[in-house]
Amino acid sequence: MSSKTVKDGSLGRRRLMLGLGAAIAACGLPTRAQTVAMPRVAFLSGSTKADGEAFLASYVEGLRDLGYRDGHNIVVDARWADYSAEQASRLATEIAASKPTVIVANGGGIAPVCQLAPPLSVVFMHSGDPIDAGFADSFARPGRNATGMSLLALELIGKRLEILKQIQPGMRRVAFLASPEHAGQQRELAASRKAAEQLGVEVAYHEARNPTELAAALPAVAAGRPDAVMLFADALMIGQRKELASFCLQYRIPSAASWSAFPDSGHLASYGPERHAAWRRLASFVDRILKGARPADLPIELPTVVELVVNRRTASAMNLTLPPAILARADRVVS
Fold first, then answer.
1. What share of the chain in percent tops pLDDT 90?
2. Tell me: the pLDDT tens digits for 235-281?
3. Given the DSSP bridges, would you call strands 306-311 and 269-273 parallel, antiparallel or unpaired?
């Protein structure tokens, strides 16, 4: 066989292999260069990174428990609106452009992602009533593109009042502070009035929509000489919790709320949902949606883990003694 014949045969084989490679690519069969796109899960918090980063970590921990690893088989894209409605709206538009499989949102981040068109799957952690907010049709069957968890545990309001009265046995008047724009606020107020009535306590209600209105309301709170203050856990109160703690300390008014961020910031006590457990639970909604479930069919849940946190340093500054029964029940004491 001549060298020319060998060369022609080798060339033919090379052409055959190239042709087969092209055919494989044309048929869409996988090659080493091809990769499978990972599901993209966006995260939009209405708060600041400082206020919400620990809850993001708990949510990611929940994802890990279900077998998801950021950057390995899922992509978590986190953004923060810094308590700005305008920034939340802009970030929601940016998130939609990245085409995520599902968006996790809380606070001021929920409304703009629920309003995206075309709609995307949304899982929320909502401090109020998601039905009143217009995010779902009902707890049992959300019916729209959003589901998740609500932290509005109305049955715990009476317990918070009882805790305040145990610490302050002479409590006769309580001031309630809330934002009227918080979904579920009227339900929370009605439950608060009922619980106060059962304890024989008078209620003074003060509302504010923003930090300016809140600052203007505080002199009226002080003038009413309440024996205690109850704060509704909405975005305004959590954002202004340190300023409110300073006010309560200045006038020696014991204050309580539902989240531990309040006693951690100087308020006397909190009794309510343990939010880290709730955030870990939220990952299960994402898992089910990634596996094909529709948010419309996933019932909205209430938290199942609650905690009592008291601030011993604040109690001492107000010349209050924390009863042994309260200290024994407390899940955590801030010293």
1. 85
2. 889 889 999 999 999 999 999 999 999 999 999 999 999 999 999 99
3. antiparallel
Which domain, by its residues, includes 123? Answer: 40-152+275-297
Residues 6+ apart with CB under 8 A from 17: none
Which helix (DSSP H) or strand (DSSP E) does residue 206 occupy? strand 202-207
| Chain segment 91-110, per-residue pLDDT in tens | 999 999 999 999 999 999 99
Whole-angstrom distance, CA of residue 301 vs CA of residue 232? 20
Residue 159, Cβ neighbours under 10 Å: how many?
16
Residues 68 and 55 occupy one common structural domain: yes
Q: What is the mean pLDDT of residues 279-288?
A: 98
Residue 161, φ and ψ in degrees, nearest 5: -65, -40
Whose tokens are 């968006």? That residue is 103
For 20, counting Cβ atoms within 10 Å of its Cβ (0-12 exposed, 13-18 middle, 19+ buried), the class is exposed
33: buried, middle or exposed (CB in 10 Å: 19+, 13-18, 0-12)? exposed
Both tokens assigned to 325: 């029964």
83 Cα distance to chain centroid: 13
Residue 179 has what DSSP assignment? -
Q: Are residues 237 and 327 in the same domain?
A: yes
Q: Are 78 and 114 in contact (CB under 8 A)?
A: no
